[in-house]
Every structure is written in structure tokens, then in C-alpha cells.
Write a structure and sequence with these properties.
It contains 27 helices and no strands. It is mostly helical. It is elongated, with a radius of gyration of 29 Å.
Length: about 575
């Protein structure tokens, strides 16, 4: 059969063909447009929302009137058809291609349905895809929290024990023992930034499993599954990619919004990225989860990540209907790679790069913040000596802010001060707590007996590492249903900071505090990225909105929990 431009290969559904015909008649009524373009092709392109083509049509005499008519036709299409026009058009084209390939290409029976296709029947299923994604992420957090916690305790013991003792011995040997320099290094740097390094095992486990999911090809399926859900709440399907990046760090997530063509979509997505629980918040969840919930700490971490997603979706739904008018979005078109066996080289590189980024962050911004906190804790000096913590400049400043957090259950100067320093970076919350709760005093007052020798310390470190390695293997096996090789050891919390938190928080207060850390104003680097990408006005809007949402959510959780006697 001889085909011409006027005999289309693809026939769309009657509702779409009706709209094509109406727009095609408008185009044929304008000689300039009819002469420059094929009317049917132009009608389809305008229905799909080709912005570049629309700009060119607008500059053509009579083109503005055509575009106005097209906008009226497409405005009611989503409500009438229940789906975006570009999605329906693309779906019909893919069905046409599939039918054509099926009729013209001969394949061996085994090649018709690959293993990737079999897995995708569940992984990309409209109903099963999202629950499967949530289950996989829940498993990741369970393993991360319960298995890595053993190494967290080991690293914490090494830092607050041998390393602190070696530093004190070094300063004593050079005649600086008992000076402010020794206090700065041990109580400031080691207790602050050094204490945060104890959470490196958590990040190693998390980055390993995320790299495993990415390199296997599953994360592309997660983006595909989430596309339709995001479209339903008024978000662009492409917004999922910046939000997914935001789980690692909000800064690259905000810059990833450049993949969105519509400026309104970029701003909206940029406002939602900080709600994604970045890796910097993870040490806070792990610390509080291990202190108050033991082997169930993974549930707290999972709940925080889900809450961040829920608040982001709810905020996007609200913003789309108030600050940003709802508009038609082009569909997210992506090619799903086949599933493949993850390669150790790729996983190792990703884990190493992300972990070293965290370590670099600790020894720059976090160490600087820890030193500032130490200075405030040691002022004003009294007779050449540091004041008591409750009489320090840091406590004075924190006490003025504490009443604002009292309705949320953590209105102490220690907790309020940790919240304030967390504005620099969320990891600083942990390092500040390590200083204000004087966890280092536990090792200093452990007894007046002779301290261990250097050789004994090294032996303890090696033996402790071997024990942690063995306990990690036991904890991993114990994750299987009905298996418990750890006994009651999995519930023992030996971290000095965790013990201090249990003396100052109830479980309900700890949950409210975690919620506030999740939702409140992001770190200074993220604030700077917001200003750079979207301007000062949207930056301040994000700062104020997130702080208000965090305070409201924490107050609601604490007050409702108190009504039920959980306080």
C-alpha cells in the first residue's frame, strides 16, 4: 500500500483523533502554517506540548490565535481523559511499535520474555511496584541500623578511650597537660568531630546497599514506578530524580532540578528536596534509635524517611494549588536498563567516594563548628578556668531559645543548643551533644586505677575489632525470622552519649526531636544552593516554611503522645 502524508500510520483513540482534527482544521485555515508544516504533524506536536515549536508558531502571523485555541482544547483534556495527552499519545505509539515488531520480527521462544521482563512484572507493576520499593528500603534500613551499630560502638569506644588517652598523654609529655589547648583538642575536636566519625560504619552500610540497588538496575525501576504517583499530586515525573539525589545530599539534589524545563517545576521541586532525609541526618536517627529502641532502631530510621517523603508530597500538593498553578506536564520517558549483576569495582568506588565526602565534611565544617561550640562552652573564663557548662555563654544563648521548643518536649538548653548548631550542618547536632552532655567525663572518671598502657590499648582495639566483626556476622544472621544468635546483647547500649541521652530524654521526646531534625531548616550549604538557584526570596521562604513545619509536627507528636500517657 502506498502511504502519503495524509494517510497516517497510527490511528489514535477517538477522543484524541477528535482533538487532532479540531486543531488540524485551525492550522489548515492559516495559509502560512499550512505551507510551512504538515497540519496533522503540527497538531500532534502542539497537543504534546512542544514548547520550542509553540514559540515559533507564536511568531508566525496568525499563530497566536491558533495557540490560544490549542490551549483551550488541551486545558480540559486532562479532566476529560484522566491522563495527560502526551502520555496517551506516547503510549499509542509504543503499542503500534510493539505490534509492528511482533508481526515482522521472528525471535526464538526463549528470547520473547527475558528474565528482566519477568522481574519487571512485579517491580514495575502499578499496584505492587510501590509496596515492593518500600519493603526493599525498609530492609536496607533494618540491616544498616542493626548490623552497623556494633561497629559504631567499637569506633566510639576507640575514640573516647584510647585516642583520648593518647592525646592527653601527648599533651602531658610536651608540658601542655591541663591547658586550654588540651581541652580544645580533646573536649572540642575529638569529642565533637571525632565522635561523629563513629557513624562512618552506618554510612558504609547504607552506601553499600544503595550502590547495590543502583548498579543492579533497580533504581531506574523505582523512578518509573514513582512517576505516575508524582503526576497525580501535581509534580513532574522528572522531579523524582532530584528528590532521589536528595537522599544522599540536598545540595546536588537542588542543582539536579536543572533537568526540569519549566521554571515553576524547578522551584517547586527545589523547595521539596530538603525534606528528603539526607545522609547528614542519619547519625542523629541512629544515635537516638539505638539509645531508645535498641534492635528496633531501623523502624525509627525508616519512619523518618517515610515522613520526609510524606511531608514533601503534601507540601507539593499544597504549593501546586496555591503558589504554582497546575499545568500539563510532558511524560517522563526513560529506557529501563536490563537487570545485571552488580560489579564490585563500581560499588566500591561509589561507597568510597560518598564516605570520603562525609569524612572531608567532618574535618572542615564540622570541626570548625565543634571548635566554635567549645569556645562558647568555655566562656566566660572565671579565674582563668572554664565555667561550668550550665554557666557558659553557650548555655545562656541556648536558654533564651529553649522556651520555644518546650511545647515539643525538648525545651532544655542542651537540646536547643544542638538544634541551633545543626543549622550549620545536621551532623553537628551529634557533635554538639557529645560536648554539652560531657560524655567524655565517663572515661575520665572511670576510676583512679592506673590507665592502660599503649600496648594494652592496641590489644584492646584489635580484640574489640575482632569481637565486633564476629558480632556483626551474628547480627546479620539474626535478622532472619526466628533466629537470634545475639541473645540480649543486641539490646545493650554501651555508648556514653546514648546513656546520657536516656538520662535527659524520654522516648517520646526523642521521637519529637528526631522529627524536628528531619524537617527543620536545612544546612547552610543547602540554603546557599537555594539562593543560588532560585533567588533570595525563595530561599527565605524555604527557611521559614521548613522551620514552621518542623516545629508544628514535633509539637503535634509530643502533645498527642502526652495525651495518651506516652510522656
Amino acid at each position: 500500500m502506498l502511504l502519503t502524508l495524509n494517510s497516517p500510520l497510527i490511528q489514535y483513540d477517538a477522543a484524541i483523533e477528535d482533538r487532532i482534527a479540531r486543531i488540524q482544521s485551525l492550522i489548515e485555515a492559516h495559509p502560512d502554517l499550512r505551507a510551512a508544516y504538515n497540519p496533522r504533524w503540527l497538531a500532534l506536536s502542539l497537543l504534546e506540548g512542544d514548547a520550542d515549536l509553540a514559540d515559533r508558531i507564536h511568531q508566525t502571523p496568525g499563530g497566536a490565535a491558533v495557540l490560544a485555541e490549542v490551549q483551550q482544547i488541551t486545558a480540559a483534556s486532562h479532566a476529560d481523559l484522566g491522563e495527560d495527552l502526551d502520555t496517551l499519545i506516547a503510549d499509542r505509539r509504543y503499542r503500534f511499535i510493539a505490534d509492528l515488531v511482533r508481526e515482522t520480527v521472528s525471535r526464538p521462544p526463549s528470547a520473547n520474555f527475558t528474565r528482566s521482563d519477568q522481574i519487571d512484572r512485579f517491580a514495575t507493576h502499578p499496584l505492587l511496584g510501590i509496596p515492593l520499593f518500600l519493603v526493599l528500603i525498609w530492609i536496607v534500613f533494618q540491616v544498616t541500623a542493626n548490623v552497623s551499630g556494633i561497629f559504631v560502638d567499637w569506633v566510639d569506644t576507640v575514640i573516647t578511650g584510647p585516642i583520648s588517652r593518647w592525646a592527653a598523654a601527648l599533651f602531658g609529655g610536651i608540658g601542655l597537660g591541663g591547658t586550654w589547648i588540651e581541652s580544645l583538642v580533646i573536649d572540642g575536636v575529638i569529642a565533637g568531630a571525632g565522635g561523629l566519625l563513629a557513624f562512618i560504619p552506618v554510612l558504609l552500610f547504607l552506601y553499600f546497599f544503595l550502590a547495590l540497588l543502583e548498579d543492579s538496575g533497580y533504581m531506574a525501576r523505582a523512578a518509573f514506578v514513582m512517576d505516575r504517583s508524582m503526576q497525580r499530586v501535581g509534580l513532574h515525573g522528572k522531579s523524582f530524580l532530584p528528590l532521589l539525589v536528595g537522599f544522599g545530599c540536598s545540595v546536588p539534589g537542588i542543582y539536579a532540578t536543572r533537568t526540569l524545563e519549566d521554571p515553576r517545576d524547578r522551584i517547586l521541586t527545589g523547595l521539596l528536596v530538603p525534606f528528603m532525609s539526607c545522609a547528614a541526618r542519619l547519625p542523629v536517627y541512629v544515635l537516638i534509635g539505638a539509645a531508645f529502641f535498641g534492635t528496633h532502631s531501623g523502624n525509627l530510621i525508616f519512619a523518618m524517611y517515610l515522613l520526609g517523603i510524606f511531608v514533601a508530597v503534601l507540601s507539593g500538593f499544597l504549593f501546586r494549588r496555591t503558589l504554582f498553578k497546575l499545568s500539563e506536564h510532558p511524560a517522563l520517558v526513560m529506557e529501563l536498563p536490563p537487570y545485571r549483576r552488580p560489579t564490585w569495582t563500581v560499588i566500591r568506588r561509589q561507597v568510597w567516594e560518598r564516605t570520603m565526602g562525609f569524612v572531608t565534611h567532618v574535618w572542615t565544617i564540622i570541626m570548625f563548628a565543634s571548635i566554635v561550640v567549645w569556645i562558647l562552652l568555655n566562656l566566660p573564663r572565671q579565674d582563668g578556668r572554664a565555667p561550668a557548662l550550665q554557666d557558659s555563654l553557650f548555655s545562656d544563648v541556648s536558654r533564651t531559645l529553649a522556651p520555644a521548643f518546650a511545647p515539643a518536649g525538648f525545651g532544655t538548653w542542651e537540646a536547643s543548643g544542638s538544634i541551633v548548631t545543626g543549622l550549620v550542618a545536621k551532623e553537628v547536632v551529634v557533635s554538639t551533644m557529645s560536648q554539652v552532655y560531657e560524655v567524655e567525663e565517663e572515661t575520665a572518671s572511670a576510676g583512679e586505677e592506673e590507665p592502660p598502657t599503649f600496648v594494652e590499648d592496641v590489644q584492646d582495639i584489635v580484640v574489640g575489632f575482632g569481637t565486633a566483626l564476629l558480632d556483626t556476622a551474628k547480627a546479620t544472621i539474626s535478622l532472619l525470622p526466628g533466629v537470634n544468635l545475639m541473645g540480649d546483647a543486641g539490646d545493650d547500649q554501651n555508648s556514653a552519649l546514648q546513656a546520657a541521652l536516656r538520662d535527659h530524654f524520654t522516648p517520646l521526646q526523642a521521637v519529637a526531636f528526631s522529627i524536628f531534625v528531619l524537617l527543620y531548616t536545612p544546612c547552610m550549604a543547602t540554603v546557599g544552593a537555594l539562593r543560588h538557584e532560585f533567588g533570595t526570596r525563595w530561599m527565605w521562604f524555604s527557611v521559614a516554611y521548613m522551620f514552621g513545619i518542623a516545629w508544628l509536627a514535633a509539637v503535634i507528636v509530643y502533645q498527642i503522645g502526652s495525651l495518651f500517657g506516652l510522656a
